[in-house]
Design a protein that fits this description.
heterodimer; A: mainly alpha; Fumarate Reductase Cytochrome B subunit; 3 domains; B: mainly alpha; Cytochrome Bc1 Complex, Chain D, domain 2; 2 domains; two-stranded antiparallel sheet; 17 helices; 2 strands; 42% helix; binds protoporphyrin IX containing FE
Chain lengths: 349, 409
């Protein structure tokens, strides 16, 4: 275990990349909410200027949609830089071969996102905008995965539980959250030609999958408290976080509906009857964007759960040597020490 | 939970999944104004054997010669003559077309950006969200508007539509666009959108009238037909005159301060004794035979009166076409043409103080004196030119009474 004592740069860049992709989704969401996607009609430059040389004063004090659209582009470039650092340090120090290649994969994904974003402007194509919009959260989940895979939990977790429902359920949750994202994007980017019936179908599907996500998270929350998972208290952390996010997300979903379309039964309460939607209003934009961002967080947290469960599943780990056993026996517990040699070097899985 | 009732939803829910599989195959089609199939179906339902869709399509083709296409709207100036102009066409072209900015940094497609999700590209109220909001988004093509300062049968002023866009309509999906108006960049957007609403309303109403003349009178669909040109001019003239059709609001009495908008007791020299007195007078007017307010708004003003009716947009293709809107197997015949499930027009509940046309005393005065066009709410009989009815003084008492039915905490 050579790098244990040294500063782990891979971990640093992986976490920083994930942490900056998240606000990128927020700003990107605001771009869509404000329909600012086409605020800057050219690309890769901004009104003929080079992206980085576009006059700051015009940008900051200019129209709001220009501010967020150009800000989105700048933040995107910054994320690209972070991921390049991640690749460099992974190829320099990371022992796991798949991780090194995965970091290159992330770079490719970030570049693809950037290109898609650019084509969206040049081709003015809503479909591309939609792929770009769904791609963002997926890239975020990917970056989060690399961050989790560089974490100490990944290294120190011990395969102690037999495969049971939780593993499968975590994947169902991930699948349902991603589906939910795609459906949400259909609602958000509804075309002018979308028919009322088509739109209603999308809404119904989005609500149905909200039900699936809810059921999956409740199931996870319940399972981690039962045998055999009960013995692994660290599984509770993502489970609880998911449950918390779910409550927030459902509330934001209803809020998003109200901020866009008001409630159809507004005559049931005076506060609803008096509510006036403010188009492009501050709170309305924030609600809608928060709903989208929390949706991405749900995907990332499902990935987190999958990492934590996966690293503890006996059948999934063919090579027990890939786990590092900390020297501190009080954390490790006696049962584990009987199964492998303490301090054995990490090899790639 | 009436229209959106659970029972109906669960059936719709199932069909959603079927509908989705159909949807996946469709790419983006070319965008154009949608022909008025529903009106054609309504006109041809009795006493005509023409195919409604063909009628709608033919009419639409003629209308395109006058008003242009979705992306390139135009004004029938040659037909109308230069001095009959009811909309500003530079505003209209800026609102039409796809969303985006040219290299001149001026934003275009403002209607598509802000309004199509509900009102639809044609202004037919069949935007994507149409089935999911209540009341339904307005179909502009009838040329009928609810909240205005002009009598029934006259068109709203620019200021009326501007007010709706600026304030929004509480308790409905119609948003307030105040935020875009307050940003320096979009300061002209509302003014331009008002012009586009006028344009779509004129275009839609001309389309309806031309279609009726074709089906009912057998007039040829020829842009040079004298009869059709006359119909066109009639509609445009009404809109051109709208500004001068606004009624004069009489000076409100001292106990109503229109500027404040909020009628708290204890200001403007109103004491409790006078308040009780005014409420008594107002109540007797509210409950009188002459006004019949109670019939719809209920004895306490909770909107629970006995009378139930549909709005004109619904009657247009139901009762007028010989269809009973209450029978679902009847009205569903019109669904393929774009009909939405008929919903009763709900009289307002005054306890909540949520006025859709604005809550200042002068706005409420207008609603009561002018009625709410397109809905069952009638104009009150006003004592004028020797006709029996309410005097201005009584009208203000009625306004005072209605406004004080709001429950305040
Ligand atoms: C677990 C539950 C949910 C998840 C994970 C979720 C996820 C999402 C995501 C990720 C988006 C944004 C997609 C994009 O912009 O690219 C979205 C959009 C949307 N969601 Fe949800 N959602 C959930 C529940 C709900 C609920 C209960 C409602 C209530 C009706 C709702 C209403 C909406 C609406 C209206 C949009 C479109 C926003 C717009 O037009 O800008 N969602 N959802």
């Amino acid at each position: 275990m050579s790098s244990e004592a040294k500063f782990n740069f891979v971990k640093l860049w992986a976490w920083l990349s994930a942490m900056f992709i998240f606000p990128l989704i927020w700003v990107g969401g605001l771009v869509t909410t404000h329909d600012a996607g086409m605020a800057v009609p050219d690309w890769p430059g901004t009104y003929g200027y080079n992206l980085f040389l576009y006059p700051i004063s015009t940008w900051l004090y200019g129209p709001f949609d220009l501010l967020i659209e150009h800000g989105h582009r700048l933040l995107g470039s910054w994320v690209g830089l972070l991921v390049i650092f991640l690749c460099i340090s992974a190829w320099a120090t990371e022992a796991r071969r798949w991780y090194r290649w995965a970091s290159v994969g992330l770079l490719a994904a970030v570049i693809a996102q950037g290109l898609l974003g650019g084509f969206r402007v040049v081709l003015d194509e809503r479909t591309i905008a939609m792929v770009h919009g769904c791609g963002g959260p997926l890239v975020f989940a990917y970056a989060s995965f690399l961050a989790f895979a560089s974490s100490s939990d990944w290294k120190h977790a011990w395969p102690s539980i037999a495969p049971k429902g939780l593993w499968r359920l975590s994947w169902v949750l991930l699948g349902a959250s991603v589906t939910q994202l795609v459906l949400g994007a259909q609602l958000r980017h509804a075309l002018p030609s979308t028919t009322p019936v088509g739109f209603m179908s999308m809404v119904h599907l989005h609500l149905t999958f909200a039900g699936v996500v809810t059921a999956a998270i409740l199931g996870v929350w319940f399972l981690v408290r039962r045998n055999p998972y009960r013995t692994e208290p660290r599984l509770k952390v993502p489970a609880n976080a998911l449950a918390g996010l779910l409550v927030v997300q459902l509330a934001l979903g209803i809020g998003t509906w109200m901020a866009n379309y008001a409630l159809p039964w507004s005559e049931t309460a005076p506060s609803l009857a008096r509510y006036v939607i403010s188009a492009k209003g501050y709170w309305e934009s924030m609600l809608v964007t928060a709903h989208q961002a929390t949706g991405s967080l749900l995907i990332a947290f499902s990935t987190w759960l999958i990492c934590r469960v996966g690293r503890r599943q006996i059948s999934l780990v063919q090579n027990p040597n890939s786990f590092t056993i900390p020297q501190d026996a009080s954390i490790v517990g006696t049962a584990r020490e009987t199964q492998t040699t303490v301090g054995q070097p990490v090899s790639a899985i | 939970m009436n229209r959106s009732a659970v029972a109906r939803l669960s059936a719709a829910w199932l069909s959603s999944f079927v509908g989705l599989s159909l949807l996946v195959g469709c790419g983006p089609s070319k965008l154009e104004y949608r022909p008025n199939d529903l009106h054609a179906a309504s006109l041809t339902r009795e006493g005509s054997d023409q195919d409604p869709r063909a009628v709608a399509k033919k009419t639409s083709a003629l209308i395109e010669q006058w008003f242009g296409t979705l992306d390139e709207p135009k004004w029938p100036a040659e037909t109308l003559g230069a001095d009959l102009e009811a909309v500003r066409m530079d505003s209209v072209s800026r609102c039409a077309g796809p969303v985006g900015r040219g290299v001149d940094k001026v934003e275009r497609g403002v209607f598509r950006k802000h309004c199509v999700s509900c009102h639809g590209l044609t202004g037919d109220g069949l935007g994507a969200a149409a089935m999911l909001v209540e009341p339904y988004p307005r179909d502009f093509r009838r040329g009928t508007f609810k909240f205005k300062s002009t009598p029934v049968g006259k068109k709203p002023t620019r200021q009326d539509i501007h007010r709706t866009l600026y304030e929004g309509i509480p308790g409905t999906a119609m948003p307030s666009f105040r935020a875009i108006d307050e940003s320096k960049e979009f300061a002209h957007d509302i003014d331009d959108l008002v012009e586009y609403v006028r344009f779509l309303a004129i275009r839609g109403e001309v389309e309806r009238r031309v279609m009726a003349a074709y089906v009912r009178e057998g007039v040829e669909l020829d842009p040079d037909s004298g009869r059709l040109k006359e119909l066109l001019a009639q509609v445009v003239q009404k809109w051109a005159a709208s500004e001068s059709d606004a009624i004069e609001i009489p000076e409100p009495p001292a106990y109503i301060s229109s500027a404040a908008g909020d009628l708290a007791i204890g200001i403007d020299g109103i004491d409790n004794g006078q308040h009780v007195e005014l409420m008594k007078k107002g109540q007797s007017l509210f409950e009188s035979e002459l006004t019949a307010c109670v019939k719809c708004h209920g004895k306490t003003g909770a909107g629970d009166g006995a009378s139930q009716d549909y709005d004109e947009w619904t009657k247009d293709w139901t009762i007028l076409a010989g269809i009973d809107p209450k029978q679902s197997k009847d009205w569903k015949e019109m669904k393929p043409f774009g009909a939405l499930k008929p919903v009763l027009a709900k009289p307002r509940n005054f306890h909540w103080g949520a006025y859709h046309g604005g809550k200042s005393p002068s706005e409420i005065f207008k609603r009561i004196v002018l009625g709410i066009e397109g809905t069952p709410m009638p104009p009150v009989a006003r004592a004028q030119n020797g006709n029996p009815g309410l005097s201005d003084e009584e009208l203000w008492e009625l306004v005072y009474y209605v406004m004080h039915l709001e429950e305040r905490s």
